[in-house]
């Protein structure tokens, strides 16, 4: 039988939760193309940092990064910053904070990171005094990345803000 989508699976957190904090973790699986639920799927990590008072108001805060195109920081290293924010954001005492990884970013599967651009980072740095050369190197790297992702069957048109809103 066909899987029911969207589907949320609660999991153990993949990071250490500080003693004075509470968090819940899981993965949401959605259709890559919401109009074709029988097709490819996208797996999105979700972290809920619980209200520090233990008494959360009914309306949580959902944090999305800009772009889209930036990871949420839900990985083992990035999550450490979120524990610090609780100290400076008084609203976190009374509201759960939902960290929602947007498709294509960070720990989402598939991840659309362009290793091709990263691999040419030093070449770009050495060419900073030649803007045209930097643009050429970057354009080549991004074209190679695009070709690889499309070759993997990923529909790049389905990795933007409209689809993120549907995921939410």
Structure described in brief:
With 168 residues, the chain is α+β, with helices and mostly antiparallel strands. The protein has 5 helices and 5 strands, in the order ββββαβαααα. The two termini are 25 Å apart.
Topology:
Layout: E1 7-11, E2 23-31, E3 41-49, E4 61-63, H1 79-88, E5 97-100, H2 115-119, H3 121-126, H4 131-151, H5 161-167
Parallel strand pairs: 4-5
Antiparallel strand pairs: 1-2, 2-3, 3-5
Can you list the strand order of the major beta sheet? 1-2-3-5-4
Q: Number of DSSP strands? A: 5
Instruction: List the total number of helices.
Output: 5
Classify the oligomer: single chain
Instruction: Give the percentage of residues in beta strands.
Output: 15-25%
Main beta-sheet strand count, sense and barrel state: 5 strands, mixed
What distance lies between the first and last C-alpha atoms, to the nearest angstrom? 25 Å
Q: Which blocks of ≥5 consecutive residues have pLDDT under 50? A: none
Radius of gyration: 19 Å
Roughly what percent helix?
25-40%
Could you walk me through the main structural features you see in this protein, from its secondary elements to its overall organization?
It contains 5 helices and 5 strands; from the N terminus they run ββββαβαααα. With 168 residues, it is of the alpha+beta class. The chain starts with 6 loop residues before the first strand and ends with a helix.
State the main characteristics:
168 residues, alpha+beta, 5-stranded mixed sheet, 5 helices, 29% helix, 18% strand
């Amino acid at each position: 039988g066909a899987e029911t989508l969207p589907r949320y699976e609660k999991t153990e957190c993949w990071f250490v939760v500080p003693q004075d904090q509470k968090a819940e973790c899981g993965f949401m699986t959605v259709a890559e193309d919401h109009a074709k639920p029988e097709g490819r799927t996208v797996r999105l990590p979700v972290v809920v940092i619980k209200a520090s008072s233990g008494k959360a108001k009914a309306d949580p805060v959902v944090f999305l990064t800009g772009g889209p195109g930036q990871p949420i920081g839900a990985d083992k290293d990035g999550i450490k910053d979120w524990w610090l924010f609780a100290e400076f954001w008084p609203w976190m005492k009374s509201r759960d904070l939902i960290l929602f990884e947007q498709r294509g970013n960070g720990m989402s599967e598939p991840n659309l990171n362009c290793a091709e651009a990263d691999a040419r980072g030093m070449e770009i740095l050495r060419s900073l005094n030649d803007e045209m050369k930097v643009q050429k190197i970057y354009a080549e790297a991004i074209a190679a990345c695009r070709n690889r992702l499309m070759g993997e069957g990923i529909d790049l048109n389905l990795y933007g803000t409209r689809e993120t809103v549907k995921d939410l």
